[in-house]
Amino acid sequence: MGVAKKIYQYGLISILGFCFGVLTAGDLPVPIKNEIVMPPLSNIEANTPNGKITIEAGEGLTRYYTWNNETRHVTMLARDERWLGSLGLYYPGIGFHWKATSDGIRRGVLEEGQQHFKTKELALEWIKKQVYWGAVYRDDGLLVQYNREGSTLSVGVWQIYVGGKKPKQLPGSKNKFIFSSWQKNKGKI
Length: 189
Description:
Order of helices and strands: HEEEEEEEHEEEE
Strand order of the largest sheet: 5-6-7-10-9-8
Largest sheet: 6 strands, mixed
Number of strands: 11
Shape: globular
């Protein structure tokens, strides 16, 4: 299925879900091949340099974003092939797909996925670029990037792997700034 057709179909489902308050077709499942970060019905709270953001996962592709006491949701798109290292989920934020929030946000450019690096040094180079855009990260490689500019909310949820494993320690991490509901299970998804 072409990307344009997929965006149209998922966008139509998201618009209908927004208009009627529910997704009548249900939460579409995440394809098995996609490398996601958040287990079904989990959440992440992150205190970033740009403010606090909470991300909640539905049972499949739906994600809910809460900031400044406002919540909006989308049905993410599953990547068919790797793009900038990710085989995760994304939402390109075409048009103004949300009702405006009190701070003027009307669209979201959203990503979730895994980033795999051969060395810790390569991972830290990538992390440095994310921190520039308002990211915080933990020693286990969970990274949340949150930024608002004009009418756009930009959020990235990433799990970093080094040599095929989650790291145990990353310089500059802010462990107390990110809480995930699956921490009780020692970070296992």
